[in-house]
Amino acid sequence: MPATKVHFNGSVNLADTETVMREIASRVPAGVSRIPDGETGDRSNWFSFQLKKFAATPGITSSAHPDLPGFPRFRISGEVPARDLAWPDPGYADIYGASYQVFTRLTAEGAVPGGIRFQAQFPTPMVFISAFAPGEDYDALLSRSERAMFADLDNLLARIPHDDLAVQWDVAGEVIQLASALGAPVDQDRIPGRLARCLDRVPADVPAGLHLCYGDAGHQHTIEPQSLELQVILINSVVAAARRPLSWVSFTVPQDRSDPGFFAPLRSLRTGAAERYFGIVPYHPARQGAGTIQRQAQLIETYLPRDVTSEWGISTECGMGRVGQAADVLALLDAHRDILASLEEVRAPSGIKPWQIQYPCW
Asked: What is the pTM (predicted TM-score) of this model?
């Protein structure tokens, strides 16, 4: 069946939480089941707002990062044992707690329709350490990062009624590591298990999803995905390792890819009843050829398994926190509505059958 749902990965470059929620609800009136707060303010550059907190942690020293110009690389100084590091409070629970109050007010007013959940996004414990503290201190710092992030999530879960909440883990560093973009891969064998731990930390009565990302610096990937193969293998492994079901997954689809070979690995996707979203809402539609989105949708229809559900949805590849002007953000929100409407009649092309395509070796 054609796309019927819309997902927002988190960040939206508008003035504040209320503006984000009002604009999403008014401009995308159908297909939305979760609404984010837009990750406005200090969170607009994803987890970078954690850098100052971490740099001030006793026992941590920093130097220039060899692979990320302009960013620090952290190490344990030795003045404080790793087990005694006073990891800073990530602060997401406090911020989301305030955003939730806006959400409840707008829902009561009818500005946000009933039945929509408040969506909170967390970076995985791995991504900060993998980006800014690789090397000999990786394992020690990763365990501290996980403890702090899980405690922050637990704090949020205690504040917000579970029937109002949805939680997304943003998976970028792990995808980039697996694609071997930043030198020697780190923790490849353990990545699915670590992500399963993140998923399992969310109680079963709260929907929990994963956003798979290849980076979004200037809407350019850190490394270009050659197909959906890596994302399919990773999400299948996480689903197999997790104790609770996955509620949704958001896949990266480069806006210029509308060839069968990119989408063919979907044939092996095994996500149970999880909602599947594909980043086919383009940041730069003028750079696309005519009919690209329709061809992408047709190929998704061709290869997406009908094992549990045939429904799927659309999203941008990453968030909208780095879309330059408010007018551009609003146009991108409108594009979600318009693309969803344009895909109502899309079906798999009759001339392409899954068994007629040469797949990568699995």
From this structure: 0.88
Tell me how many domains the chain contains: 1
Distance CA 210, CA 121 (A): 9
Please, what sign has the CA dihedral across residues 290, 294, 298, 304?
positive
- pLDDT tens digit sequence for 239-291: 999 999 999 999 999 988 999 999 999 999 999 899 999 999 998 887 777 88
Residue numbers of the domain that contains 224: 5-356
The region that residue 272 occupies, defined by phi over 0 for left and psi between -120 and 50 for alpha, beta otherwise, is: left
Asked whether residue 362 is domain-assigned, the answer is no
Residue 361 inside a domain? The answer is no
* 3-state class (DSSP) for residue 277: strand
Alpha helices in the chain (DSSP H): 17-27, 50-55, 92-109, 125-132, 138-159, 173-178, 191-201, 229-241, 260-263, 292-303, 326-342
DSSP code, position 115: T
Under 8 Å between Cβ of 25 and 31 = no
